[in-house]
TrEMBL record:
<keyword id="KW-0460">Magnesium</keyword>
<keyword id="KW-0130">Cell adhesion</keyword>
<feature type="disulfide bond">
    <location>
        <begin position="14"/>
        <end position="51"/>
    </location>
</feature>
<dbReference type="InterPro" id="IPR016201">
    <property type="entry name" value="PSI"/>
</dbReference>
<dbReference type="GO" id="GO:0030593">
    <property type="term" value="P:neutrophil chemotaxis"/>
</dbReference>
<feature type="transmembrane region" description="Helical">
    <location>
        <begin position="687"/>
        <end position="713"/>
    </location>
</feature>
<keyword id="KW-0472">Membrane</keyword>
<dbReference type="GO" id="GO:0007159">
    <property type="term" value="P:leukocyte cell-cell adhesion"/>
</dbReference>
<keyword id="KW-0245">EGF-like domain</keyword>
<dbReference type="InterPro" id="IPR057073">
    <property type="entry name" value="EGF_integrin_2"/>
</dbReference>
<dbReference type="InterPro" id="IPR057243">
    <property type="entry name" value="Integrin_I-EGF_CS"/>
</dbReference>
<keyword id="KW-1133">Transmembrane helix</keyword>
<feature type="disulfide bond">
    <location>
        <begin position="232"/>
        <end position="273"/>
    </location>
</feature>
<keyword id="KW-1015">Disulfide bond</keyword>
<dbReference type="GO" id="GO:0005178">
    <property type="term" value="F:integrin binding"/>
</dbReference>
<feature type="domain" description="PSI">
    <location>
        <begin position="2"/>
        <end position="52"/>
    </location>
</feature>
<feature type="disulfide bond">
    <location>
        <begin position="471"/>
        <end position="485"/>
    </location>
</feature>
Length: 756
């Protein structure tokens, strides 16, 4: 258990900052100079620091079982059986602290079933319609085998009666089938034929009245039909307490949202019921629904679809089934004679699989499921699933609800098995405020009688401030008091203390020490270390700086005071620096170890004395009076010479003999300008060569690019020509005489000519 504290100014802030944070309301719990935020920590840490258990505020989750009716065993004793337990719970959650509770579901024997047979009546389904007309009795018997309280309804669909989906010629609208077809009904989108009924004869009678129709393209208005069957519950006759099933039979695909634009239909589907005289009245005015819209309405209305499709459409509808929870796909025979067995098998698969989920949640609430299946197995997470659940078997799911942060208002959502009307209502609120049971007085002694206690802290009157309301600000500006505690308009008391009446009260440091100073800017633990000791053990750390013992020096008191290694010719650093830690720290221009060699600072003097050039050329004697002796020589004395560059960028070599002190020396110089000028002075660049070379380079690169492009074009043309030649060789031309062609030469035979 960890308490990750953020900005803590009150008990409420502490409770919100972490699921395991507690607040100590005990008076005098904080030490002098300690902030009130120290009251916030884990319960174990607060107890260790001396807070009594009864003074620790750490709200727990609260669970109320509002409604928990007993599960029904069958449907004999009630028309509204209960399959899910409990029915309503209330949770009051600590943010970040999960609460787990269990729900139970039991399949009831003989639970009512409403089955809506939705059939594609396009021309290609002619033989399937004949089969369903002959299978009405078997379909009812199969339903009675599932439950004695079964009902069945019937609906049909084709497609929107607009181009390019349906031929809009008036005669074709009346009879969209082939001319030889005698029994053909006019084109339509979706028609609700029969509401739910338990009368077998009525169902058979209405189905026998049905005739096929037709359209132009292959996909049908399937999603239009499913949407209307789902949202027109009162027209279809769905019961509140029943398993709702749509059996869809078709041999073709389906149109989706956006396809309506082909017919100029731009209005999106609004998921509402538009049945007038049992016909979908908005079929030609409203676009097809999307798969997501259909899936949502099926789930909201607890409807489970069974797609009975031909073999060529199985793959399409299996993909659709993956996007619609609690749905099944079966393959029809050529004439749909296996539809009864298909429905029974699909129903058994649907009813034996229990999938528990919830409706939409806010982003800061999370719900997960852990299944407790009677046969083991199952899967959990955002949904809970148990397979092979038989009639009368009870399955359980552990539901874990977590509020990630405080909720602005109470929320409610439902949990339940898909396709079942039984739902658990879950109401959730959060515990983000402290209940401290404080004394009801505005003049508490702990607050110097100038305020009241709020969860161990003082809430002062308007004219008083401070941890215990000890500071009166009557006639004073609060902002000016705070400004007095800020150094250079920075953080109040450097973040290391509390500003009380314009004076910083510094906090303690772990280990018994404390910050100090006007703005708590000082402490004696941050000085430099040497050999892992503050101030090398040779001094004291005072306000972040080492004060060394008399015989030591250095930022960490790491050096003994001595100048033995700084002396040269009986002088310390030749008078051109200071000895620190037994090493010379030279003035700029002089080099260690003794600040003796190569003072480049008199470069300008070398130029003016030796060559009468440079910035000192006009007042050379005055500017360079510290140089006692200056000679131009052909050869330098032995030793490593120094060098500088003059205004012409030539190197000037020289040696010096320094006297003790700064700028006090004699100089021996040799100017290579006299003897080796051409080798030491850099040659000027050949401008004409550079310009000419650049032009030649650009021209050469351009020529190469042109040649490359020409080569690529040539190779491409050659490749095309060879391909043309190969194709010409493969061509086989047929000699055919043009019937319109007449030869320019006419031959006429003499009828009297005998050939002799």
């Amino acid at each position: 258990e960890v308490c990750t504290k953020t900005a803590i100014n009150s008990c409420s802030d502490c409770i919100k900052s972490g699921a395991y944070c507690g607040w100590c309301k005990q008076l005098n719990f904080t030490k002098p100079g300690e902030q009130e935020a120290a009251r916030c920590d884990t319960q174990a840490a607060l107890k260790e620091r001396g807070c009594m258990e009864e003074d620790i505020i750490s709200p727990k989750n609260v669970f109320f079982n509002v409604k928990n009716s007993t599960l029904s065993k069958n449907t004999d004793t009630t028309d509204d059986p209960i399959q899910l337990q409990p029915q309503e719970v209330y949770l009051k959650l600590r943010p970040g602290l999960s609460k787990t509770f269990r729900i139970n579901f039991q399949r009831i024997e003989g639970y009512p079933v409403d089955l809506y047979y939705l059939m594609d009546l396009s021309y290609s389904m002619e033989d399937d319609l004949r089969s369903i007309k002959s299978l009405g009795n078997q379909l009812f018997e199969a339903l009675q085998g599932i439950t004695k309280k079964g009902r069945i309804g019937f609906g049909s669909f084709v497609d929107k009666t607009v181009l390019p989906f349906t031929n809009t010629n008036p005669e074709k609208l009346k009879k969209p089938c082939a001319e030889k077809e005698q029994f053909c009904q006019p084109a339509f989108g979706y028609r609700h034929v029969l509401s739910m009924t338990a009368d077998k004869a009525t169902f058979q009678k209405e189905v026998n009245k049905q005739n096929i129709s037709g359209n132009l393209d292959s996909p049908e208005g399937t999603l239009d039909a499913i949407m209307q069957a789902a949202v027109c519950g009162d027209r279809i006759g769905w019961r509140n307490s029943s398993t709702r099933i749509i059996v869809l039979t078709t041999d073709d695909g389906f149109h989706m949202a956006g396809d309506g634009k082909l017919a100029g239909i731009l209005e999106p589907n609004d998921e509402k019921c538009y049945l007038e005289n049992k016909i979908y009245s908005k079929s030609s005015e409203m676009d097809y629904p999307s798969v997501g819209q259909v899936a949502t309405q099926l789930e909201n209305n607890n409807i489970q679809p069974i797609f009975a499709v031909t073999k060529n459409m199985e793959g399409v509808y299996r993909k659709l089934s993956e996007m619609i929870p609690k749905s099944e796909v079966g393959v029809l025979s050529e004439d749909s004679r296996n539809v009864v067995e298909l429905i029974k098998a699909a129903y058994n698969r649907l009813s034996s699989k229990v999938t528990v989920t919830h409706d939409s949640l806010p982003d800061n609430v999370k719900v997960t499921y852990t299944p407790k299946c009677p046969n083991g197995g199952g899967s959990g997470g955002d949904t809970g699933v148990c397979d092979n659940v038989g009639v009368g078997m009870m399955v359980s799911f552990d539901v874990t609800v977590t509020a990630k942060e405080c909720l602005d208002r109470n929320i409610s959502f439902t949990i339940g098995p898909l396709g079942i009307k039984d739902k658990l209502k879950v109401s959730v609120s959060t515990r983000c405020e402290c209940e401290c049971d404080d004394p009801q007085t505005d003049a508490h002694p702990y607050c110097n009688r100038q305020g009241k206690v709020n969860c161990g802290m003082c809430s002062c009157k308007d004219t008083f401030v401070g941890q215990k309301c000890e500071c009166s600000i009557k006639g004073k500006d609060v902002s000016s008091l705070k400004a007095a505690c800020q150094k250079d308009n920075g953080t109040e008391c450097e973040g290391r203390g509390d500003c009380v009446c314009g004076v910083c009260q510094c906090h303690a440091i772990p280990g018994g020490l404390a910050y100090y100073g006007t703005h708590c800017e000082c402490e004696n633990e941050s000085c430099e270390k040497y050999k892992n000791q503050l101030c090398g053990g040779n001094g004291k750390c005072i306000c972040k700086n080492c004060v060394c013992d008399p015989e030591y020096e250095g930022p960490a008191c790491q050096c003994k005071k001595s100048d033995e290694q700084c002396r040269s010719d009986q002088s310390v650093c030749n008078g051109r620096g200071t000895c620190q830690c037994n090493q010379c720290k030279c003035i700029e221009g002089y080099q260690r170890p003794f600040c003796k060699f190569c003072p480049h600072t008199f470069k300008k003097c070398i130029e003016c004395l030796g060559f009468q050039t440079g910035p000192f050329s006009k007042n050379c004697s005055e500017a360079c009076k510290s140089i006692h002796k200056f000679e131009m020589v052909d050869t330098l004395p032995p030793g490593k010479p120094c060098d500088v560059r003059d205004v012409e960028n030539c190197r000037v070599f020289f040696t010096t003999f320094q006297l003790v002190g700064e700028d006090n020396y004699t100089t021996n110089k040799v100017c290579m300008f006299i003897h080796v000028h051409h080798t030491e002075c850099p040659e000027l660049p050949n401008i004409y060569g550079i310009i000419g070379g650049s032009i030649a380079g650009v021209a050469l690169i351009g020529l190469l690019i042109l040649l490359l492009i020409k080569g690529i074009i040539y190779m491409n043309d050659l490749k095309e020509f060879r391909r043309f030649e190969n194709e010409k060789k493969k061509a086989k031309w047929t000699d055919v005489t043009n019937p319109l062609f007449q030869n320019a030469t006419t031959t006429v035979a003499n009828p009297t000519f005998t050939g002799e």
